[in-house]
Design goal:
Blueprint: H1 2-17, E1 21-26, H2 29-42, E2 48-50, E3 59-60, E4 76-79, H3 86-93, E5 101-106, H4 133-145, E6 150-153, H5 178-188, E7 193-199, H6 205-215, E8 220-223, H7 231-237, H8 246-251, E9 258-261, H9 269-276, E10 281-287, H10 296-302, E11 310-314, H11 325-333
Parallel strand pairs: 1-5, 1-6, 2-3, 2-4, 4-5, 7-10, 7-11, 8-9, 9-10
Helix pairs in contact: 5-6, 6-7
């Protein structure tokens, strides 16, 4: 297929430029599945497949995706034909290496907004799935307005735009980047207390935590929602890496100079507060992009308990180039950069039926 040849060439260009892109397949189930398999065969990679149903190898359900945070993959499929889990979609985008495609499977384009969304059972009080037309219409506007995303619809001619070449990108060598180096100096001399490092995905939070552990003179314990998500942290911490699951750590009498909590927002706040209170110094790392009490909510709720919190932020992407099209699209589609999210609402809040 000429389409696959063109996509193969574009993939090589994306890898040189250090970016990722979204490719939407919208159509009937059989058509989407067939074209996804052709993409997988044509473009070498891991091809992690996120779906409520085990349709392919390397499958993971949206609810289990949290266990993969901190790991990296080349190419992935997000099956939203029966429901769109926004939090899982955002998390998946952060696991993809430079030069990757995120393939989004959607129902027939004209039928999408009228189709019940199975994911609505997680947050709606209705006994059956409901349609989410306003959200779907918003996503459609974002996808059609994004010149960097590729929309491939069944029974529509496939058109691949010409993308202006970008400057070649050179991946990080493993040594601390200038932003990380500055934070390491401050953390190394931090008095007893709690520090929080927040950032969008791909900024090197886990690498920074591992670099800190490898440099401190004392002992550190690492905890996280899942050990599998600490692969990057462990790589940088080296032989000083020691992991204990949150519940096991709480039940033990383990002591250390530092407690390092990776993806801290994904741990229940009461459990996290008990853990933090047991160690002289704690480093919390988490993304600021997420839903359901994570991300911004973590800063507004949990971190507000510590008036003398040392708060740091990483802004420069490390795992992909600045201006990555996939990151930009996900942020716009899921409204991650709205400045209203950085402030706690003030005054009386009234919720009424409409």
């Amino acid at each position: 297929m000429a389409e696959l040849t063109a996509l193969h060439t574009l993939t090589a260009q994306m890898k040189r430029e250090g970016i990722r892109r979204l490719l939407v397949l919208s159509g009937e189930e059989g058509w989407c599945f067939e074209h996804t398999l052709k993409l997988r065969d044509a473009l070498p990679g891991d091809w992690l497949w996120i779906s409520p149903r085990p349709d392919a190898e390397n499958h993971c359900s949206p609810s289990a995706l949290q266990t993969l945070l901190g790991r990296e993959f080349r190419h992935a499929v997000f099956d939203a034909r029966h429901g769109f889990d926004a939090a899982a979609f955002a998390a998946l985008s952060g696991t993809l290496k430079a030069g990757s495609w995120l393939v989004l499977l959607l129902p027939v384009w004209e039928e999408w907004e009228n189709q019940p969304d199975a994911d609505s059972l997680r947050w709606s009080d209705c006994p059956d799935p409901i349609a989410t037309p306003h959200f779907v219409q918003h996503l459609k506007r974002v996808l059609t307005a994004d010149n960097e995303a590729i929309l491939w619809r069944q029974n529509q001619p496939f058109s691949l735009a010409h993308f202006t070449p970008r400057t070649d990108w050179y991946p990080a060598t493993g040594a601390p980047q200038p932003e990380q180096q500055q934070l390491l100096k401050q953390l190394m001399t931090m008095p007893p207390g709690v520090a929080a490092v927040t950032a969008a995905r791909g900024r090197g939070k886990s690498a920074l935590a591992g670099q800190l552990i490898s440099r401190i003179a004392g002992r550190a314990i690492v905890t996280a929602p899942a050990k599998a998500s600490t692969d990057v942290l462990a790589q940088f911490a080296g032989e000083k890496f020691r992991f204990i699951a949150p519940d096991a750590l709480l039940a033990s009498d383990e002591q250390a100079d530092w407690l390092v909590v990776d993806e801290a927002a994904a741990i229940p706040a009461p459990l996290l507060h008990q853990l933090v209170s047991r160690f002289p110094r704690t480093l919390l790392t988490t993304t600021v992009q997420g839903y359901e009490g994570t991300g911004r909510g973590f800063l507004l709720k949990f971190c507000a308990r510590f008036p003398h919190l040392h708060r740091f932020e990483l802004q420069q992407p490390i795992r992909w180039a600045q201006g990555c099209p996939l990151e930009k699209m996900v942020s716009e589609a899921l409204v991650f950069d709205d400045e209203n999210f950085t402030h706690t609402p003030q005054g009386n809040i009234v919720i009424s039926a409409f």
